[in-house]
Write a structure and sequence with these properties.
With 766 residues, the protein is of the alpha+beta class. Helices cover 41% and strands 25% of the residues.
Length: 766
């Protein structure tokens, strides 16, 4: 459900939240709660309806002229002070018994308003809770963002305040009611009885509205919704005859979709043009009418009359600013006459019914189109099965010809940068298959499709806009050109030509337009992919690790298994000084070109910092600050960086959320090098932990990304246990052979279908 529309341009309130808030208010009033309870429900309802973050309700003691806080919603207002935050506004509202709106509290200096501003309030609207022509309280709705509350907002909050006032009236003891007359001085039993009757009537209307709301949101099945909506609407006003008529925009006619008390033949044959009859007048003018004698009312052109109907209402059903139908309610009860109150109440009902019907009609339209869309599904799957431009184009040309049953097809792509079309592919010409012929054939119609943004039909004849020399040579007599769209704009055109005269139905045109959207997206994606493919190949060449076989006191082996052509894993070995070698391994979220770009940036920035700093923790801290500033918010890096000092064979390291490397010692034991640290790019102020470990000759250190231990398919999963087994058995072999053996075992389990990049570096201490 879309919710209640707002006149001030703000987004609509959540429909379920509105219904829930109204229900709570209704229950508070019906349950005969104390005024404080009703005020609490009222301020919550007011805040929801006005889409404001918070609100407060106040009680005004007329005897002592004091103001007390009754309830808060979404804000904690301290009530211990002698002067409440917002005191001046409530006092002004009570004194004038009129609404008060403040758009900017920051410039207000009145009593208590600065305290509200300190609580984060930017704007407010306050309305009185009036009883017996006096003010017994106030409702204040507040926004934390500067806001100009509209007259509609004030009216809505005043209506909610009225409900709270009714609750107060219902609980006022008879002895006190005697002192609440019209002039405040005499008996008022009759007047208060009238007020209580009005309150009960309002409560009943609110309950009916809630019930209709529940019915409206209970189904999206259009026939069922029409039946439920009409049934509840007629019950609401005590009508025994009625109907819901919906407007067909294509023919401009109203037809009955649900009815009660009408002859079946009338229901089946009724069809009113705009302006015809009562319902036609309402649909044309968009205003409700109350009729007691339709036969003699000059506004209506009537063909049929029912003399037994004593009173009738016709209410427009409006959705998204336009009339979609008419709700009719009539009574044959002798002496019964509807009045303005019933029309107003029925209009409220019609608003809710119209929203439900609009959504149900949209849902029904979608269902009716499902069969047509199903026929496009196979084509969609075929188009999206590849990103290779040549395959996409060949598939589209073939499908367009088959679906439209034409003799030839030309696909043109619009180059927005150069402002001109270029031919991508074509099929069906007999006098030559050069792209230039397809381009000449299709260009006139493609230009029209680009300008109009919709399919263009044309009979080909000398002098017509779509006539070309190629069309004449091929003997084409009719054509259709479908714009190819992507992301809401035309990116190309598919021009289809037939030697026979062709007439396309509206359904065919809609299907072709849908195919144009699919084709446009497919071509656009293929073009972008081709461009990215070229970038990826360039980046791949630059990011291929150039790791030496040896470094100071180390023998080095490494392997890389990308899940795609290019990914986010990388590793590097850096000569950071005499007898010191830095080694880094990292994994950037995602893959493809974006991951490669950030991988390249991280690699180069870390290298620069590593050459200037011996501390791995300091290097990661500085890299983290740069990453937080430069990378997209959804991009993070897991990193492990360490420095091996060949002089004392110590290994200093720091980690940023990365898999702890596996350490094998000459005595046959294993350990994991763990260090506390967040992913790089999360918190710019984070400081990484640094640790140090001694690596004796014969020690083996395996650094790897999570793609190594998380890779799995139906054959099994490669884990730490498998890695330890290989390292233990091959510890005496060269580092590269050890890396190769781990890689081979990984491929045996995962095959070529790795789901994530997998990288590993093996360091063997000499």
């Amino acid at each position: 459900m879309k919710g209640f529309a707002r006149a001030d341009g703000l987004p609509s309130a959540d429909y379920e939240a509105v219904v829930l808030a109204l229900s709570r208010l209704s229950n508070a009033v019906i349950a005969n709660q104390a005024p404080g309870g009703a005020l609490a429900a009222a301020i919550e309802t007011g805040a929801v309806l006005l889409q404001a973050e918070c609100g407060a309700a106040f009680v005004i003691d007329s005897t002592s002229n004091s103001i007390k806080l009754a309830a808060c919603h979404g804000i904690d207002i301290p009530s211990s002070r002698s002067v409440l935050p917002g005191h001046a506004v409530v006092k002004q509202c009570a004194k004038s018994c009129a609404p008060v709106v403040i758009e900017n509290l920051a410039v207000e200096r009145r009593q208590g308003l600065s305290r509200l501003a300190k609580l984060g309030v930017a704007s407010l609207v306050c309305v009185p809770v009036k009883a017996a022509e006096g003010c017994i309280g106030a409702l204040m709705v507040m926004s934390r963002e500067p806001r100009a509350f509209s007259a509609s907002d004030v009216d809505v909050l005043s209506a909610v305040a009225g409900q709270a006032a009714f609750a107060a009236w219902k609980r006022t003891p008879p002895a006190e009611l005697l002192n609440l007359g019209r002039d405040g001085s005499g008996p008022a039993n009759a007047y208060n009885a009238e007020l209580i009757e009005l309150a009960n009537r309002k409560i009943q209307e609110l309950a009916i509205l809630n019930k209709i709301s529940e019915a409206v949101i209970s189904t999206l099945d259009l026939p069922e919704l029409l039946k439920l909506a009409l049934e509840q609407s007629l019950i609401a006003v005590g009508a025994n005859v009625g109907s819901i008529m919906l407007l067909d925009d294509l023919v401009g006619k109203l037809t009955i979709k649900a009815s009660k008390g009408l002859d079946r033949r009338v229901v089946e044959s009724a069809s009113l043009a705009l302006g015809e009859g009562i319902a036609g007048w309402v649909a044309e003018n968009g205003h409700p009418v109350l009729v007691h004698d339709a036969k003699n009312d000059a506004r209506f052109r009537m063909h049929r009359y029912r003399d037994d109907i004593t009173s009738a209402m016709s209410i427009p059903l409006k959705a998204r600013g336009r009339v979609i139908g008419v709700l009719n309610a009539s009574t044959t009860q002798v002496g019964r006459r509807y009045g303005p109150r019933e029309v107003e109440f029925m209009s409220l009902i019609a608003n809710q019914v119209a929203m439900g019907l609009d959504n149900a009609r949209l849902y029904d339209k979608i269902e009716r189109r499902s069969e047509e869309l199903a026929s496009l599904l196979q084509l969609s799957e075929a188009i999206t099965s590849t990103l290779e431009l040549k395959k996409v184009l060949s598939l589209l040309v073939t499908r367009f010809r088959a679906m439209a049953q034409v003799d030839a097809c030309a696909l043109l792509y619009f180059d927005a940068d150069r402002g001109r079309f270029r031919c991508l592919d074509g099929q069906g010409l007999t006098g030559g298959t050069r792209k230039s012929r397809y381009y000449s054939l299709a260009l006139p119609m493609a230009a029209q499709a680009l300008e109009k943004g919709q399919p263009v039909l044309c009979d080909i004849a000398p002098g017509s806009e779509c006539w070309t020399q190629v069309a004449d040579e091929e003997g084409f007599s009719s054509a259709i050109c479908v714009p190819l769209t992507a992301s809401g704009r035309v990116v190309g055109a598919a021009a289809l030509f037939s030697a026979a005269q062709r007439a396309f139905s509206r359904s065919e045109l809609e299907t072709m337009a849908a195919l144009g959207a699919l084709a446009g997206a497919a071509i656009r994606n293929a073009v972008v992919y081709q461009h990215q493919h070229e970038i990826a190949r360039s980046l791949q060449f630059k990011l291929v690790p150039t790791v030496p076989l040896t470094a100071s006191g180390l023998e080095i082996g490494h392997k890389f298994l990308p899940a795609r052509e290019i990914g986010g894993d990388y590793y590097d070995v850096i000569n950071v000084g005499d007898q010191r070698a830095g080694v880094v391994i990292g994994d950037i979220t995602g893959n493809g070109v974006p991951a490669a770009i950030y991988t390249s940036m991280s690699k180069n920035v870390l290298r620069a910092y590593a050459l200037d700093n011996d501390s791995p923790a300091d290097v990661l801290t500085r890299l983290n600050r740069i990453a937080c500033e430069e990378m997209q918010p959804d991009i993070f890096i897991s990193l492990f960086y360490g420095v091996f000092n060949a002089e004392d064979r110590t290994f200093s390291y720091a980690a940023g959320g990365h898999e702890p490397p596996l350490l094998y010692r000459p005595d046959g034991s294993f350990d994991r090098l763990r260090a506390d640290g967040l992913l790089v790019g999360v918190n710019p102020g984070f400081e990484f932990e640094e640790k140090r470990v001694r690596l004796d000759p014969g020690s083996v250190l395996v650094l790897f990304t999570d793609g190594v231990v998380d890779s799995a398919n139906i054959r099994g999963k490669f884990g730490i246990d498998e890695m330890e087994e290989i390292v233990r058995s091959d510890a005496l072999k060269p580092a590269q052979e050890l890396a190769d053996n781990i890689y081979i075992r990984l491929l045996e389990l995962t095959g070529s279908g790795a789901q994530d990049d997998a990288a590993l570096v093996v360091l063997k201490v000499m």
